Amino acid sequence: MIYYSLNKLAPQVDFKEATIQGQAPDKGLYFPLSIPVISNKWLNEIDSFSKEEIAFELIKPYVGQSIPHRTLKRIVEETVFFDFPLVKLSNNIFSLELFHGPTLAFKDVGARFMSRCLGYFMGQQSQKVTVLVATSGDTGGAVANGFYGVDGVDVVILYPSGKVSSVQEWQLTTLGKNVTALEVKGSFDDCQDLVKQAFSDQDLKKKVLLTSANSINVARWLPQQFYYAFAYQQWDDKSQPPVFSVPSGNFGNICAGLLIHHSGLPVRHFIAACNANDIVPDFLRTRDYKPKKAVATLSNAMDVGNPSNFIRILELFSHRFTDLSHILSSYSISDAETIAAIAEIFQKNNYVADPHGAVGWLALKKWMEENPGEKGIFLETAHPVKFYDIVEPIIHQKISIPAPVNELRNKKKLSIVLEPSYENLKEFLLTFT
Ligand SMILES: *Cc1c(COP(=O)(O)O)cnc(C)c1O
Fold this sequence. Notes:
The chain has a domain at 83-106 and 220-399: Rossmann fold (3-Layer(aba) Sandwich). α3 packs across α4 (69-79), α3 (51-63) packs antiparallel against α11 and α6 (138-147) runs parallel beside α7 (166-173). The strands form three sheets. It has a six-stranded mixed β-sheet with strand order 3-4-12-9-10-11, with helices on both faces. A five-stranded parallel β-sheet has the order 8-5-6-7-13. α7 (166-173) links the parallel β6 and β7. It is of the alpha/beta class. The chain has helices at residues 15-21, 40-44, 51-63, 69-79, 107-123, 138-147, 166-173, 188-199, 202-207, 218-221, 225-234, 252-263, 279-286, 310-316, 321-327, 335-349, 355-370, 388-395, 403-406, 422-431; strands at residues 3-5, 30-32, 86-88, 93-97, 129-134, 153-160, 179-184, 210-211, 243-247, 269-274, 328-332, 376-380, 416-418. The structure holds pyridoxal-5'-phosphate. Pyridoxal-5'-phosphate is lined by residues 105, 107, 138-139, 247-253, 301-302, 356, 381-382.
């Protein structure tokens, strides 16, 4: 597969280059030159395939010659080794649970796939690569865990001391091996500033091969297509394809869904479920795309004021607004509505949703009120225990922590405390390996 930059000022590259570079030299996002077609025969036989077989078939054309098939099969097996159950809540609403991975986040899939691809590419050369990430808590865990134990890759993760939840801190600090947690005596913004300074430090970059595990990387974006195929496999009534409601922040996940639909996966409609950060709902109403400053909400993994992947969605539809608006709707859900939704899902369906999933559920309900007779799926993108401080007071009940995560509490915390100064970070990066 060939990838081109959406800014069209950089050379075309293969999957390997696109993965290593992340973003094109002209700052554009990489996009596949052609979109593979899924055959009807394959769709008709989908019930007989394992999830590993489905994932391998879907990703193969995007990887092309960059990774031998045997290796790619192993990478895919290590990526989708957990379950993706479709849970029925009512006659017409289902939850696709994407939180059964090692860090209880749907980002586990993208992080695991990208880390193993990068590990394979680094194995072909003698130099080691250092992945540098700043995290406010949630996404860093998926990245750290995804890269854990991958040869040729060191991970350095900066998090604000005392400002992440206990579960999040266990996930960041108990790994060890090639993952180093730097506990920064400052805020998330301090962490992010430090990382930005490192990436623009030419002297450092001559000495250390640095990369980011950014969500715009094609190796993180493309494997998210798997979720939609796994849901379709579990969908009983193939004569009436599902509506998908996707809790959206940077729009990588929903963009992957629209991509696999272009390849031929039957989908009735897509709903981008947003919180108060309503740039896309506004765009679909006014045709005017106006980035804003992000506002803080209860579904904080979606607090994005300028979704980086939206440009890929526009490209997929050749910037034709009418075509896009036929398949995509979008709603903005307030925090008050999110709280009421968590309560209602619990009372009516005896199901505990996290704030992101609840936004997806309510957006789906709103669309179904305007389109009666449809059946739909909302993507449950995080385990509710990760947001227990929000969810437990609403449902008046404790949420139990899944065993593999609970076991982390007995592991030794390994972190290096860092004062928020760039000199300290640089010295660390030059000496730690
Ligand atoms: C990252 C994240 C999202 C948003 O996904 P995008 O691909 O950025 O749109 C939604 N829910 C949770 C829990 C997340 O961590």
